[in-house]
């Protein structure tokens, strides 16, 4: 009986994740739809993406991130150098005032989960803490879903609010 209820609850979570997006607010920052793409069972790394909609007039900076499911979380940028995709660690991610900083699989900014303690399974969720200079720390919930699904949900969320 209890097993049946747990199964039903997890199906409901999957269903709602497919149909919606989520966001968080810290001061004038709106943190839109944090998501992570699924990983193979033995993967040591993963990546988190979110859009940061900065609706204020003072430039802000994301300075660190952490999560229970990874030993460290690094701020990364991925770009092409001489035809090769390369990732580099950033000290900060600068957030220009009045702009949306987008993170998407395939290139650019992302949050790298290093020393992953468990695989990222589609439909599951996990907490992540983000620290911004002068604004402090906020806990957000990361949804594990495909690159296409996560990107589409984040895009749709912007259209909905603007
Ligand atoms: Cu990376």
Automatic annotation (TrEMBL):
Mind telling me which SUPFAM superfamilies this protein's record contains?
A: DR1885-like metal-binding protein
Q: Which Pfam families does the record cross-reference, listed alphabetically?
A: PCuAC (PF04314)
Q: Which domain of life is it from?
A: Bacteria
N-terminal signal peptide = 1-21
Alphabetic keyword roster = Signal
Q: What's the name of the protein?
A: Copper chaperone PCu(A)C
| UniProt source species | Marinospirillum alkalitolerans
Q: What is the lineage of its organism?
A: Bacteria, Pseudomonadati, Pseudomonadota, Gammaproteobacteria, Oceanospirillales
